[in-house]
Amino acid sequence: MSTENVYYATGRRKTSAARVFLKTGSGKMTINGKPADEYMDTPSGRAAVTQPFHLTDTKNKFDAYITVRGGGTTGQADAIRHGISRALVTADEALRGELKKAGLLRRDSRMVERKKYGQHKARKSTQFSKR
Fold first, then answer.
1. Is pTM, for the whole model, over 0.85?
2. For residue 63, how many C-alpha atoms fall within 13 Å in the half-sphere facing its CB?
3. In Å, what is the CA distance from 106 to each residue of 64, 83, 96, 102, 109?
4. Residue 63: its H or E element
């Protein structure tokens, strides 16, 4: 991959982190070495990944090479969406308004709450017994 006109950005969500490399091309998307449709098996995941391109009408203008690690399918899809949005802004600053309005440039900081000792889950505890 040549270094000319390659736009890089990182996207994060939950425990997932995606590295996105955008290059001017025909709209080919590769995630962890696989085609995007093959890697993202859910329709909602596919929609989330392509959302920044649809919003900005740049569907067939960039090739995306993406590596993503950690988390599950939803976290990875949202991390990729975040990374693509940020990379599009580095490629063309004029797209910032549309992406910001849609809320795609903000990192979703919600994380899973940790389990506490003496409890079943983060908040679920044992049933109260008076006697």
1. yes
2. 12
3. 20, 10, 12, 10, 9
4. strand 62-69
Tokens found for residue 70: 């950690």
pLDDT band, very low/low/confident/very high, at 4 (cuts 50, 70, 90): confident
- The Cα 97–Cα 100 span in angstroms is 5
Per-residue pLDDT reduced to its tens digit, 77-123: 999 999 999 999 999 999 999 999 999 999 999 999 999 999 999 99
The structural domains of the chain, ordered by start, are: 6-96 (3.30.230.10)
Length of the chain measured in residues: 131
Q: Most distant CA pair in the chain: distance in Å?
A: 73
Nearest to 18 by CA among 52, 60, 42: 52
Report the C-alpha gap between 109 and 23 in whole angstroms: 28
